[in-house]
C-alpha cells in the first residue's frame, strides 16, 4: 500500500513548518530536551501517560531540536498508518478495498491535523492499526505473541489505547468466534492489561491533570462522526451512505472477519466506551481516540465495493476491475479537493488554540533584558520555555526553581506571601497571561495564582498591550507611578467572546 502512504506523507509534510507551536507541543519540545534523569523525575509527579513518548522524542530532538523535527515522527507515523489501513482492507476484502480505504485515511483532515502535531497521538494510531492487523492475523493463524507485544507498547504510548481490546472483543463476538480463538486472544489481552497496571496506578494518582475536561454530549459524538467520515457536507453524507451499506458485511459465516466486523467496532467502541465513562468521570478528548479513525475508511471502502458488486449483479455497466479501482481512487482525490480549504486553514498557526511563537515575537520586541516578567498562570511560562531566546535576560518574578531542576513542567514558583513581597518592590511589570483569565472568564486555582491576580487588580493598571489569540503580553504600571509619568494612561481591556 505505497500510494496511500505517499499521499499521507505528502499531505503531512505540506506546511509542516508553520512557524509556531502551541502549548501542548511546547510541553513536548521542552520536556524532550531535558536529560533522561530529569524526564524520569518529572514522570513521578506529572505526565506519566506520555513518558515513553517523551523518551522517544528525547532521542529525536537530540538530532536537531526544531519544529520540523518535533512533528516529523507524527508525519511518518500517519503515513505508515495509511499503509496499514490499506493492508487491512486488502486482508479483509481485497486489493481495491485496501487501496480505497488507505486513500480515504490519507485524505482525512483529522488524520492530517494530528500528522502535524508534536504529540503522541499519531504514533498511538499507527500502533493501534498495526495491532489490529496482527489481530486479524491472530484470528486466522492463531499467533498472538506479536499482537500482544505491539498493543502493549502502544498502550504505554497512551493508556487509553487499551480500549482497543474492547473493539477486538466485539469483532470476535460479531464473527461468532469459537472458544479456541477466545482463549488465544484472551491470554494476549490479559498480558497487555497486566503490563499496563503500573501505568494505570501512576496515572490515576495524576488524574488532576484532566480537571479541565468536560463531560461529552450528543454534540460531541456528532462532531466526532463528522470528523471520522469527512467534515464537508458532500463528503460526509456520501461516506455515511457508503459506510451504512458496508455494514452488510456484519452478516456472514461464523469465524470470518470482514471489514464491517473489524471496522465498526474499531471506529465505534473505543470512543463510545470513553464517552460513557466520562459521564461519571470526564476523561474524553477526541485526540485520545484518534486511533479509532482507522475503522471508518474500512467501512466506507467496503460499502463502495458492495455498491459496485450490486451494480454488476444488476447487469449495469460497471468498469473493469482495474478501471474501477482507479475510479475509486479518483473519488478519494475529489474528496481531498473538496476538503483542501479546510486543510489549508489547519496549517495556519492561528488555527491552533494558541501560537507561542507569536507571543515570543511580541516579548522579544517589547520586553528588554533585566525587566521583570510575571507569567499568569504559571503555564504561560510555556512561551519562554519553548522560545528562550525571546525572553533572554528578563527577570522571572515568580520563579524559584526551573522545571528541569524541580521535576515540574513549568518550574516551582514562590508562595503567595513571597509573591506579594516581590511585586511590592516593582513599579512596572510585564505580564504574559491568558487573556480569558485577565478578562475574568475563569479563575485560577491555588493561592499563588490568586495572589498574582489580586496584586495586579489592587496595585497596578494596564498601560499597554500586545495580544495574539488567547495570549497577551501586557505592561502593568503601579497606580501611583502611572499618574506621575507623562504619556502613560490606562488602556482598556479588550473584550472578546468566550472560547467554545
Automatic annotation (TrEMBL):
Positions of transmembrane segments = 151-175, 187-207, 227-250, 262-282, 288-311, 323-342
InterPro entries per record: LipidA_mod_glycosyltrf_83
Arranged from A to Z, the UniProt key words for this protein are:
Cell membrane, Glycosyltransferase, Membrane, Transferase, Transmembrane, Transmembrane helix
Cellular localisation: Cell membrane
Could you tell me the membrane topology recorded for this protein? Multi-pass membrane protein
Q: Which GO terms describe its biological process?
A: lipopolysaccharide biosynthetic process; response to iron(III) ion
Q: Which GO terms describe its molecular function?
A: pentosyltransferase activity
Major subcellular location class: membrane
What are the annotated GO cellular component locations? plasma membrane
This one is known as Uncharacterized protein
